[in-house]
Design a protein that fits this description.
The protein has 85 residues and is mainly α. 86% of the residues lie in helices and 0% in strands. The protein has one domain. The radius of gyration is 15 Å and the shape is elongated. The model has no long low-confidence stretch (mean pLDDT 91).
Length: 85
């Protein structure tokens, strides 16, 4: 349930990045997040029967977390640069 909700939010973030024209770096990072979330859901289901899939589930989650923080930082930086003084 948590994984699928996170996946849905990643898709919403990608759509906002594209529609809002937030810039190529934010769109690319958002797309990579969607791809990693897709992989994460697959690893979660496969991890029920495969120890190797379960072992990859944790580092992939850490990569997702790191990219999400990086994406937030890019958005904040863009907001600060474009904010009127």
């Amino acid at each position: 349930m948590v994984g699928q909700t996170s996946f849905a939010l990643a898709i919403v973030g990608l759509v906002i990045a594209i529609v809002g024209r937030l810039g190529k770096p934010i769109v690319v990072v958002s797309a990579v997040l969607v791809a990693l979330m897709t992989l994460q859901i697959g690893l979660g289901y496969a991890g029920r029967t495969s120890l190797e899939a379960a072992a990859w589930h944790i580092p992939n989650g850490v990569a997702i977390f790191g990219l999400a923080i990086y994406n937030i930082t890019l958005c904040q930086r863009r907001h600060l640069v474009s904010a009127p003084s």
